[in-house]
Amino acid sequence: MTVKTLKKSVIAVAIVAALTGAYSINSGHALWPPQAAAQQSQAVSSGPAASTTGTAAPVSYLPDMSAIVARNGAAVVNISVTGTAKNSAASLGFPELDPSDPFYEFFRHFRGPRSRGDVPTRGQGSGFILRENGIVLTNAHVVDGADEVVVKLIDKREFKAKVLGVDKASDVAVLKIDAKNLPTLKIGSAANTRVGEWVLAIGSPFGFENSATAGIVSAKSRSLPDENYVPFIQTDVAVNPGNSGGPLFNMAGEVIGINSQIYSRTGGYQGLSFAIPIDVVMKVEEQIVQYGKVQRGRLGISIQELSQSLAESFGIKKAGGALISSVENGSPAAKAGLEPGDVILAINGKEISSSSELPPLVADIRPGEPAKLQVWRKGSSRDIEVKVGAQKDSSVASADDKAAGQGRLGLALRQLTPEERQQIGGGNGLLVMNAAGAAARAGIRPGDVVLSVNGEPVSSVEQLRKLIAKSGKRVALLIQRDEAKLFVPVDLG
C-alpha cells in the first residue's frame, strides 16, 4: 500500500557542515480597483462567437490576476533564517542508537570519529507585511529555532527581524522589523470563501522571490494530523518549498490565508496545498502583540468522530457531533458533569457537524468564560454549561520556548489514577488518551501506557515534554499494552 506523507512546505533547517558542504533547503495598501475586480472576478463567462458552422459557440475566459500581483507584490517578503543544530549520527547517515543497544559498538566502529557540537543551519520562507510600522506575518516553522531572521523586501532592502512570538499550534509567527511607511496588504475573511473560487499565492518557492501561482479552492475546514486548531483551506495552487508563510489572495486582492503545508510524496507540489485561514491568523497575531502568547480554551476531553453505525447505536438520526471518549479528572468538563459517551451536538448555538470542528471553537473561547453545550445523552438532548479552562500548553506561543514537547510526539496524555497504577504493578506512567502524528505512525494507540523515554521513567506530562524537547530525531518509548511491555522507536523527524 502506498503511504502518503504530509510535509511542511518549508523545512527551515538545512544542515551546513564540512562533511556535507554548505546548502540550504526550505520550505525552503493598495486595493484592487473596483473596475478590475468586477471584470476579473469573472472566472468563466460565455457569449456568442462566430464559428465555421454559423452557430454561436460559448467562449470561456480565465481571470487576469496581473492587477493583484502588481498592487500587492511589494508587501510580500522573503525570509531567511540562520541558526544552529546539534550534530548527530543520524545527520551523517547513521542511525542514532542508545549506547546500550547491541549494535551501538558496531556502528561506532565503522563510522569512525565524528565531529560533535552545533553545526550552522540555514533556511528560507515567505511572509507579508501586515502593518506599515513593521509587523510581518509568516509560519512558525519558518523561524523555529532560528538565531537570526532577515526580512528582504522586493526593493532589495533587508532588515533583521525580532520574533515577537510564535504559536506552533496554529503555525503562525509574528515578526517586527525596524521600518516605517511600509506597503501592506488588505485582510479579507476566509469565512466567505467558496469552494471553486480562484485564488492566488505569492511567495518564494525554492528561493525564487515574488513568484505568483494560481488555482482554486478545493475544500474548506480540512483537519490535518497534529493540527487540532486550524480548519485549513485546501487549494490546488502550486505551493512548493519556500512558499511557506506567503499570502493567499482572493480575486478581490484580499488575503484570505497563509500558505502552510503541502501533501506530497516527494516534498514538491502534487496538487494539494493547505493554507491557514486569515481569521485564525489575525486572532493569533492580536494575542501575541498584546500578551506575548496565545491563550486557548479547553474542556479536558478526548473526542472522536461519530460514524453512522455509532450514531445508530446512540439513537441519533444523523451522524454528526463530537463523541466524548474520555473525560480528564478535575477538568472543566468533569466539573460540568460531562461523561464518556456524551455527544456534543452544538456549542454556543453553533452546530458541530464533525468532531474536528469542536477544538478550534473551544480554543477561541477565553479561559474563564462559560460555554453552553448541547449534549446528546442516553437517547435525549440536554443543555450543559461548562466554564472553559485554559490550555496547559499555552506557553507554546512564547518566542523563547524551544521545546516541542507533546507536539513532536502527537500524543495526548494524562497521569495514571491510583487504580490504574495498581493495574500496571504499582509503577508510574502516562496513559495515552489520543495518538496522532509521529506516535501514531509508530503504532502507539490510545490505552497504551508510556513508562519511559530513552530509558528514563516518566511520571508527569511536563517531564515527558522536557525529555522529548532535548531528544534528537528519534526516541525510544517503553510502553505497556495490556500485560505486555515493549519498546517503540518513534521517528520525530
Task: Note down, in words, how this protein is organized.
The protein is globular. Mean pLDDT is 79; it is low at 1-7, 9-52, 89-94, 104-116 and 393-406. The protein has three domains: 1-48 and 56-294, Thrombin, subunit H; 297-390, Pdz3 Domain (Roll); 403-491, Pdz3 Domain (Roll), CATH 2.30.42.10. The strands form five sheets. It has a six-stranded antiparallel barrel with strand order 9-10-11-14-13-12. The chain has a six-stranded antiparallel β-barrel with strand order 3-4-5-8-7-6. Strands 16, 17, 18, 19, 20 and 21 form a six-stranded antiparallel β-sheet that branches. The chain has helices at residues 34-40, 66-72, 104-111, 140-143, 278-291, 308-314, 332-336, 358-363, 406-409, 418-423, 437-441, 461-469, and strands at 5-8, 14-15, 76-86, 118-131, 135-138, 146-152, 158-167, 172-176, 198-203, 211-224, 227-235, 247-249, 255-264, 273-277, 297-298, 301-305, 322-327, 343-347, 350-351, 370-377, 380-387, 389-390, 411-415, 430-435, 449-453, 456-457, 474-481, 484-491. Helices cover 17% and strands 36% of the residues. It is built from twelve helices and 28 strands. The longest helix has 14 residues, at 278-291.
